[in-house]
Amino acid sequence: MCHVIVTCRSMLWTLLSIVVAFAELIAFMSADWLIGKAKPSSSEDVDNRTGGSQEPYHPTLGIYGRCTRISHMQLSRRDTLCGPYAENFSEIASGFWQATAIFLAMGIMILCAVAFVSVFTMCVQSIMKKSIFNVCGLLQGIAGLFLILGLILYPAGWGCQKAVSYCGPYASAYKLGDCSLGWAFYTAIGGTVLTFICAVFSAQAEIATSSDKVQEEIEEGKNLICLL
Fold first, then answer.
1. Which GO terms describe its cellular component (predicted)?
2. Which residues form the domain of 201?
3. Which residues are CB-neighbours of 165 under 8 A, at least 6 positions away?
4. Does 54 fall in a domain?
5. pLDDT by residue (tens digit) across 152-178?
6. Could you report the per-residue pLDDT of 71-95, keeping only the tens digit for each?
7. Is residue 157 part of a domain?
């Protein structure tokens, strides 16, 4: 018989697992890993409303994507175009970034799988006599290691030609040059930290769903068990 068991710790672990997976996925897909040096407005970049020049803009560069400003026939119109600069994996700017993409993708796939499974832990608490929380916690720990490897390798690619074109000639491995780090990089770091927190907290979720109070509720014949 299926018993629906909901506790504060198990629910918090489930929510954190989902948030971490989405955070890492969004960061990976974003082009805001590096914020390039300011591009000065040209003499043609005139704002018709104020008569003055538009503010300089900062192009951004991701692992496989970028955002830059493009010009139109209308002098007052400047649009920011975002999209992948690499049509396939081999065109990613650096070998280090290719390795980063692989490790991050592996970690994110594991996190997404755990996030999907975590939704069903309210009904299923064990698989083949093994706690599903402990199994998911182990997978989250492995995913965290993949994410760490990807984030360590990423700065090694700052010396590639693509990064130098955005960050200036002083950019090199682990040196930003004229660039700064964007929100996507910090989100990936924060998500990695939360991944290990989730891995540790999964043990607390397992303890909460197998406590004496839960067993007492099961023995009383209750199918829906909610505990604080």
1. membrane
2. 4-36+90-226
3. none
4. no
5. 999 999 999 999 989 988 989 999 988
6. 554 444 456 788 898 888 999 989 9
7. yes
| Residue of 189, 36, 22, 163 whose CA lies nearest to 92 | 163
Amino acid identity at 108: I
Q: What percent of the chain has pLDDT over 90?
A: 50
| Longest pairwise C-alpha distance within the chain | 79
Q: Which amino acid is at 66?
A: R
Q: What is the DSSP letter of 33?
A: T
- Quote the pTM value: 0.84
| Paired tokens of 121 | 């832990």
Alpha carbons within 13 angstroms on the beta-carbon side of residue 205 total 30
Looking up tokens 């930290």 gives 193
Residue 179 is assigned to a structural domain of this protein: yes
Q: Are strands 60-61 and 65-71 parallel, antiparallel or unpaired?
A: antiparallel
Residue with tokens 């299923």: 124
